């Protein structure tokens, strides 16, 4: 018997409610087919020999017929008819031959894959746990301002640091949002050959030392803006500083940090120009923060707060040591009746932060002293407040910072301002 | 040569008017800081704010700043 080559068509398995001759005849008549009996199957006569167009097979003992080339609609119609012998039907399914050994191999392979995935997950969990633990390895300065209890990062807040620039190739600043401009003729903002600027930026906005996992920056997700107003020798002039502030205000950078100063004499009035600039900034919801200066030699009477920090409209920052005492070098508000207060204080002795490899004593990190170091702590904290209270004016942010300080009594207001800044 | 920073009056005249005024008085307006309401003036002689229009304050630019 020749086997008929069948085109791939839908084949249906139908279940009959009875295996009587009349039921079989009904199906044959309804679908216009001949149902061959499974009894005719033998070594030579295979299923495919009995199937075909207008042909099917009935497995009488099972009450099941297999039919080809039937429109499913017809079967549906038949099934819906109460007098039809067909009680159920389904399309023929494909089965794959298996043997036990192959199955075992498949299961073993799957297990190996699952085990690998489990191991990878374990490694990820361990790494993330370690990183989390490392985040709590803070510099003393960050501990003292309450960073370990803080939930803010300064995200989406721009801090403009007016200084010697930044060492942009520093590994701790890769993947950070950084922009800058130089206001010093012939010198680049992104090649800090002094290191002071990189150190201050690190305090305000840095993150974790990749060498020992120590966290040293306050607002570690803030946007960093560099305005190089100090030369590589660490000096600058009023024009460059005003130019930079003008630019920063135009760009609406909310926090401007100035770790720089020009000494003033006892009784000297603050600069009218910087007072005006500070107020203009506040009017535009921008906060200027500046260092009180390092001209003092306590316990002798401190020198007055330097320009521009001595402007009423600019937040002046004094420096504290590890015992939270005013640093020996930190200037005081002795001209306070004519401007020149210290507003707040922050850590400013033995401060670890990023540094520049391009500096003469270049390295990636350094530990420095100065009201310069204290100032970016306040800038970073201000960024956290700005994130926490996005709709507040700069003056309101200033008030909130002052309200939440840690009191340092009995130390004098003249020396430490209202107290040690704290995170929101 | 004297370099000054001057604070502009609140209701500022136009930039062109201000520059022309100072030029007519032999004073160069070296820079206008628009967002700050400040201009930088350069003059061969000492200036007195009471004798000048458009500005409320004058300050000599003679400060040098350093990293602290």
Topology:
The complex is a heterodimer of chains A (424) and B (68).
Chain A: E1 11-16, H1 21-31, E2 34-37, H2 47-50, E3 55-59, E4 64-68, H3 72-80, E5 86-91, H4 100-135, H5 140-144, E6 158-163, E7 178-182, H6 196-205, E8 223-228, E9 235-237, H7 238-250, E10 255-258, E11 260-261, H8 272-283, E12 287-291, E13 315-320, E14 344-347, E15 351-354, E16 365-368, H9 371-388, H10 394-403, H11 413-416
Parallel strand pairs in A: 2-3, 6-8, 6-10, 7-8, 10-12, 12-13, 13-14
Antiparallel strand pairs in A: 1-4, 1-5, 3-4, 15-16
Helix pairs in contact in A: 6-9, 9-10
Chain B: E1 2-8, H1 15-24, E2 28-33, E3 38-43, E4 55-60, E5 64-67
Antiparallel strand pairs in B: 1-3, 1-4, 2-3
Outline of the structure:
The complex is a heterodimer of chains A (about 425) and B (about 70). With about 425 residues, chain A is an alpha/beta fold.
Which overall shape of chain B is indicated by the principal axes computed on the Cα atoms?
globular
Spatial shape of chain A: rod-shaped
Largest sheet of chain B: 4 strands, antiparallel
Overall average residue pLDDT of chain B = 93
Q: Uncertain runs of chain A with pLDDT below 50, 5 residues or more?
A: 1-7
Q: What structural category do the secondary elements of chain A indicate? A: alpha/beta
Question: How would you describe this protein?
Answer:
The complex is a heterodimer of chains A (424) and B (68). By secondary structure, chain A is of the alpha/beta class. Chain A has eleven helices and 16 strands. Chain A has helices at 21-31, 47-50, 72-80, 100-135, 140-144, 196-205, 238-250, 272-283, 371-388, 394-403, 413-416; strands at residues 11-16, 34-37, 55-59, 64-68, 86-91, 158-163, 178-182, 223-228, 235-237, 255-258, 260-261, 287-291, 315-320, 344-347, 351-354, 365-368. Chain A has a seven-stranded parallel β-sheet with strand order 7-8-6-10-12-13-14, with helices on both faces. A five-stranded mixed β-sheet of chain A has the order 2-3-4-1-5, covered by helices on one side. Chain B has one helix at 15-24; strands at 2-8, 28-33, 38-43, 55-60, 64-67. Helices cover 15% and strands 43% of the residues of chain B. The longest helix of chain B is centred in the N-terminal third of the chain and has 10 residues, at 15-24. The model of chain B has no long low-confidence stretch (mean pLDDT 93). The relative contact order of chain B is 0.33. A four-stranded antiparallel β-sheet of chain B has the order 2-3-1-4, with helices on one face. Chain B has 68 residues and is mostly beta strands. Classes of the chains: A alpha/beta (424), B mainly beta (68). Chain A binds chain B through residues 163-164, 194, 196-197, 229-230, 234-239, 241-243, 245-246, 249-250, 259-262, 271-273, 276-277, 280, 284, 291, 293-294, 306-307, 370-372, and chain B through 3, 5, 7, 31, 33-38, 40, 57, 59, 61, 63-68. Strand 11 (260-261) of chain A pairs antiparallel with strand 5 (64-67) of chain B.
């Amino acid at each position: 018997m020749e086997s008929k080559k069948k085109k791939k068509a839908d084949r249906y398995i139908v279940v009959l409610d009875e295996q009587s001759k009349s039921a079989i005849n009904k199906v044959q008549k309804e679908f216009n087919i001949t149902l061959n009996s499974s009894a005719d199957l033998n070594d030579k006569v295979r299923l495919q020999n009995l199937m075909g167009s207008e042909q099917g097979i009935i497995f009488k003992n099972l009450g099941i017929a297999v039919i080809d080339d039937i429109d499913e609609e017809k079967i549906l119609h038949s099934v819906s008819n109460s007098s039809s012998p067909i009680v159920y039907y389904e399309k023929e399914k494909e089965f794959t031959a298996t043997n036990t050994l192959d199955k075992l191999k498949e299961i073993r392979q799957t297990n190996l894959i699952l085990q690998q995935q489990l191991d990878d997950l374990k490694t990820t969990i361990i790494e993330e746990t370690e990183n989390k633990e490392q985040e709590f390895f803070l510099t003393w300065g960050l501990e003292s301002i309450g960073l370990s209890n803080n939930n803010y990062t300064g995200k989406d807040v721009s801090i403009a640091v007016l200084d010697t620039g930044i060492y942009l190739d520093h590994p701790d600043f890769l993947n950070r949002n950084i922009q800058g401009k130089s206001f010093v003729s012939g010198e680049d903002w992104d090649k800090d050959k002094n290191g002071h600027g990189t150190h201050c930026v690190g305090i305000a906005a840095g993150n974790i030392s990749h060498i020992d996992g120590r966290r040293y920056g306050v607002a570690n997700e803030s946007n960093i803006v560099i305005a190089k107003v100090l030369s590589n020798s660490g000096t600058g002039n009023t024009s460059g500083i005003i130019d930079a502030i003008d630019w920063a205000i135009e760009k609406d950078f909310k926090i401007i940090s100035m770790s720089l100063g020009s000494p003033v004499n006892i009784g000297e009035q603050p600069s009218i120009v910087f007072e005006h600039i500070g107020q203009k900034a506040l009017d535009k919801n921008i906060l200027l923060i500046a260092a009180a200066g390092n001209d003092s030699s306590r316990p002798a009477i401190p020198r007055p707060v330097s320009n521009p920090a001595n402007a009423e409209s600019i937040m002046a920052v004094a420096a504290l040591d590890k015992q939270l005492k005013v640093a020996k070098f930190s200037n005081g508000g002795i001209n306070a009746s004519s401007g020149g207060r210290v507003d707040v204080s922050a850590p400013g002795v033995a401060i670890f932060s990023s540094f520049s490899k391009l500096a003469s004593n270049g390295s990636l990190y350094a530990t420095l002293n100065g009201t310069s170091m204290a100032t970016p702590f306040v800038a970073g904290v201000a960024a956290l407040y700005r994130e926490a209270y996005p709709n507040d004016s700069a003056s309101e942010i200033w008030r909130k910072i002052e309200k939440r300080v840690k009191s340092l009594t009995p130390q004098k207001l003249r020396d430490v301002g209202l107290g040690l800044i704290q995170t929101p | 040569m004297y370099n000054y920073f001057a604070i502009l009056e609140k209701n500022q005249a136009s930039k062109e008017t201000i520059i022309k005024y100072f030029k007519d008085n032999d004073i160069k307006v070296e820079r206008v800081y628009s967002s700050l309401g400040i201009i930088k003036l350069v003059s061969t002689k000492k200036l007195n704010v009471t004798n000048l229009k458009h500005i409320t304050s004058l300050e000599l630019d003679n400060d040098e700043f350093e990293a602290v």
